[in-house]
Amino acid sequence: MCGLLTYISTTGIGRTMTDAISEALASIHHRGPDGTGIISDDDVVMGFKRLSIIDVSHSDQPLNYANGRYSITFNGEIYNYVELRAELVALGAEFATRGDTEVIVAGYHHWGEAVVRRLRGMFAFVIWDRRERVAFGARDPFGIKPLFHHVAEHGVYFASEKKALLPFARWGEGALDLASLSHYLTLQYVPEPGTLHRDIGRIGSGECFSYRPGDAGLAIRRYWRAEFRPTPQDHPAELYRRIREALRESVRIHMRSDVPVGAFLSSGIDSTAVVALAREVNPRILTFTAALEVDGYSELPVAQESARQLGVTMHPVSVTARMMMDALPRIVWHLDEPVADPALVPLFYVARKASQHVTVALSGEGSDEFFAGYRVYREPLSLRSVSGLPTSMRRGLRAVSKAIPQGVKGKSFLERGTTPIEERYYGNARMYTEQEKSVLMRQYDGTVRYTDVTSPLYAEAVGLDDVEKMQYIDVYTWLRGDILVKADRMSMANSLEVRVPFLDYAVFDVASRIPTDLKLPPRSADTKYALRRALEGVVPPDIVNRVKLGFPTPIRVWLRGEMHDWAAHILGTSKTGHLIDLGYVRKLLHEHRLGQADHSRKIWTVLVFCLWYAIFVEGSLDPRPEPATSALLTKPVVGSMVT
């Protein structure tokens, strides 16, 4: 796992930008503390920070290929690089290293842009072809690895983290994207491809791009899209076998490494399955988990019992309210964009603990989206008695629901049952409603709605049933906007590589074919039923049907106690009052403390934004890890280029 920063010039000033690129590259040193590389010529400057995983003594980047025709910067891992290398050797390719980076660029030389469809792994890369004077790059199908871009008058920049681009982009109030802020307040993350910075965007998951100096912009296109293709199963046992073997093979190739590999272990079936299958490759694998000493929030006892039954060593880390408060500013700095998921904090500390023992950790992200693991996915099944009625009857019941007073039993059921899925569901995190935002936001624009994000996705999901539509929405919103951002930033903050075996082509291929009645049987309360059946005999029996907690954080409790004054101080001193009605949020905090309502997630969402604003806009808070870099992070140069 590494960090890249690449600049391609349209005016031949590449060499003059070397020092500026080097300075900005220092801001992502945490992504690759094992080595730094920079190459430059008139057209391009490529900077790289390396965390050595494969071919540790070689494969330094930027890497040149074909007598210097190509240069590449690459963040990620290609798990089938051994097989691809053998194919390329048969085509006459020559290799100077044993790593996966050279396989990508050799594949591009022999297969062209089609190489991205053959890469099995997590990746974000940029290749510069000096002969054709064209850049080509891509991001992995599920968005595991990030890739930000900034198009300026004199060229284009690419980086693994947004902070590395800030010195080169226009900044200030006019550059703050209010539409993205509105989406954040609803979703708790900023949806792709936008950011809170108007001049900085993201290459989307499953997208590739090309750029020629002088082009008006990036030519971005989609090379892969998740397609759910449910297939009736006459023999479910055979399906369960295919699920089990696809996951077993994925874990096996995710264990390829020249450095120690461990795993995160919580109380649920996903991480337990990954550990159980990884143990088949390495019986001595180390595991790591978080403990929050508040009743109902700690996964430690169950995780310890799972570790005992699997025969693996566990290293737990306890997380307190004080640790949450201390770490949050630094976490927000690492995030680049605000993400209001409190689970970031225990994940940060688990990654820190793991990095003391291993360089790579396996994790269970992606299982819930692929195999229907969220309980909300059962909602369409519970609403069938209403949603399946003729349109005229649904209209009548909708009118009835509006006449029922708030709080009366049955009102919510009728409202949900008579509302189409396209209007009802927009992902797992739902913070402020449009009505609440009209009060909360000083510059509320009612034309900006969550449907701006979800409508194009629902258009692509035509023909799927409601459960599959919900899965599709989550793959392109919640998974890549929250789950994978957490995994990447919190692991990289600690110079740890996290690998996610569920997010694999072959695993998705078999998961995408599971019919809804085998994911969520109507007569069962189980979620991801097919996966649970597939893992019987692999994970301990008492884990097969357990609902995981997923590193939950007791902010509901702590914001009424230990964290209250800390939160009040942030809200009382924040300079975001022209954007957010902080008095309204302080009222929510007061009501929450009195126990009148649970506003914890709404309060947390604003707290994270206030910290983000203080770090990246005001420059009044600098939580960077020591030693602080000299890169211009909080006060970027105004204008389109560094002089």
Automatic annotation (TrEMBL):
Task: Name its pathway.
Answer: Amino-acid biosynthesis; L-asparagine biosynthesis; L-asparagine from L-aspartate (L-Gln route): step 1/1
Q: Which domain of life is it from?
A: Bacteria
Which reaction does this chain catalyze? L-aspartate + L-glutamine + ATP + H2O = L-asparagine + L-glutamate + AMP + diphosphate + H(+)
Q: Which residues form the active site?
A: C2
Biological process, per Gene Ontology: asparagine biosynthetic process
**Per the record's keyword annotation, is Amino-acid biosynthesis included, yes or no?**
yes
Report the coiled-coil segments. Answer: none
One GO CC annotation: cytosol
Report the leader peptide range.
Answer: none
Give the enzyme's EC designation.
6.3.5.4
Give the Glutamine amidotransferase type-2 domain ranges.
2-214
Q: List the residue(s) that the UniProt entry marks as the site Important for beta-aspartyl-AMP intermediate formation.
A: E365
Question: Which residues participate in L-glutamine binding?
Answer: D100
Its Gene Ontology molecular function terms? asparagine synthase (glutamine-hydrolyzing) activity; ATP binding
* Any single Pfam family the record assigns to this protein: Asn_synthase
Record: residues binding ATP: S363, G364
Name the keywords, alphabetized. Amino-acid biosynthesis, Asparagine biosynthesis, ATP-binding, Glutamine amidotransferase, Nucleotide-binding
For this chain, the family text in UniProt reads: Belongs to the asparagine synthetase family.
Name it: asparagine synthase (glutamine-hydrolyzing)
Q: Which organism is it from?
A: Actinocrispum wychmicini
